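Feature request disguised as a bug report, sorry. It would help if multi-protein outputs had a clear separator. Right now it looks like this:
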Amino acid sequence: MGKGGEEQLNGSEPLKFDTFPAWAKDVRECEEHFGVSVERGLSSSEVVTRHQIYGLNELEKPEGTSLFKLVLEQFNDTLVRILLAAAVISFVLAFVDGDEGGEMGITAFVEPLVIFLILIVNAIVGIWQETNAEKALEALKEIQSQQATVRRDGVKVCSLPAKELVPGDVVELRVGDKVPADMRVVGLITSTLRVEQGSLTGESEAVSKTTKPVEENADIQGKKCMVFAGTTVVNGNCVCLVTDTGMSSEIGRVHSQIQEAAQHEEDTPLKKKLNEFGEALTMIIGLICALVWLINVKYFLSWEYVDGWPRNFKFSFEKGTYYFEIAVALAVAVIPEGLPAVITTCLALGTRKMAQKNA
């Protein structure tokens, strides 16, 4: 947490919030550690000091990827680059050889335009997928609470902006409230307290909470005396002590993991196989084009033998271009133009269907 998570407050012992397992300690130990009384809450001066240490109780906003970079990433694929090269060559040849405004000229441009259209569709679907991934981070922010009821200086403060909470704050929770930070339950106002925390743990039913400490090595589901940011109280009222805020909370750790995964994303096995296929296809296409062009070299390149040596070479640019077009046409015919778009679309639809079924 901020600045090492250790600070001297009001002459008391240094607080070490980072390593303190509040779920394994009783209420009195938690009060002593955070330097607060559950009845009075923090003083205004303590709140200011802790704000300087821990900052606001909110998740960091990641830097969004620019649209230009997203577009470039869609062409970072061997098969797509082959298609792009074939489309550019076809377009140039059609522009050079096509009759201006004639039927033959328009027909010559059909093939490169179709390839360009396929690449554009593939890029649009890819960008849509990337945008949905970035929206996952924004969705985490949406489940955070906006307000909280807090005890400070012995006075209950209603509707305090949740981002102003600091470790050590005493918060009251009621039915329907969203939990604004990770907190230790220190008192039950009602006989029972149940919290819906499926958004964080995946549990299908609401979980009962208690004030009793648990084992220090308990997992997140086993911390029955803790409530976590982003979860919802579905039954009961209670008083809690804030232990972690912002990026130090459990939801903040999830946020950090999503950001880290996005920055260090590795190619999937499917993408690796497709890249290998694209590289092999590039070699095959290159060999076919070179072979077709060389087989027909006698039609656009001629020479005479003088004293047993070839002399007087004559090159026909028109015929050379014609046979080059044939080679390029064969290359385009070999390339599965629809494969990138089909794969991208199938993956996008599959991901959407899985999300609908909460898979």
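(second protein starts here, but nothing in the output says so)
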Amino acid sequence: MSSIRLDTDLHVKYIQNLDEGKDLAYHLTEHLRLNGVYWGLTALCIMDRQDALDREAMIAYVLECWDDEAGTFGAHPGHDGHVLATLSGIQILVIQDALHRANVDRIVNFLLSLVNPDGSVSGDGFGESDTRFSYIFLQSLTLLGRMEALDALYDGTGRDLVLANIRGSMNFDGGFGTEPGAESHGGQVWVCVAALALLDRLDLVDRDLTGAWLSERQLPNGGLNGRPEKLEDVCYSWWDLAGMSIIGRLEWIHRDKLIDFILGAQDLEGGGIADRPGDWVDVFHTVFGLAGLSLVGYPGLQDIDPVYCMPAKVIDKLGLRKEYHTLPRMASYP
């Protein structure tokens, strides 16, 4: 076990300062801005510091990202609406108890327009489809309380079509790809397993086979990768583990080795967590490192729901919890 501990105060400060250094990299990542706000907020919630960012300013920014032509949220004010930004906007408003300030009917219409005749889901009007978008579509409708709208599509076959496309993306090795026939990938396993959970169809998953594929993603240094023969990356501490949590196979990884790997990727001077020890930190890896630590019971953290990647207490309050399993919260570590 490593003697390094999680420095939550430093990570909170790192997130608070993310909007301060507006360098070239800041402007080049406008297309991720609303996602970044969600990542930062979720990280703070895991550390029980949701109040570290101004609630009203955050809500106001989300509403500024509205694309009135598309009827949904874009990644930043002036950007086109996209399903990726749509979910982040919804998640932020739900966590901040402000969903009533969004035009839910128009968002639902936008979402329904993305479902293709083969059951795949596009990200926007340009047509690129991906099982990520299928999951995002389903979570968005669930959080909006409008899943029944899916049933009305394509003469009442909408739900079956989306389900069939996700099921068709399942591979012989237990993994899932971006579309039927595509290579298995840790991130796609999570979105597909979580999508099936939202559809109440986890019965379609061979839990031992999928769990074995996910557990084999752990490398000798404790980190997890997304595909065979790839490098470890802190973000798979969420993608792989959340899938294992949903199917009840979290015990199939070496918990302490993973914890030490994540803790070793911290920047203990400026805060934040990197993809692996020694690399540059970012808010993306910070939230997913913290989320992975929460799933395996690291002490002092709040529970995260592996189906939604949102605070468990928020999902429980809404009555939207699905089946999953996490490891018991430890009293101390190491």
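Even a blank line would do. Unrelated, but nice: The chain is about 45% helix and 5% strand.
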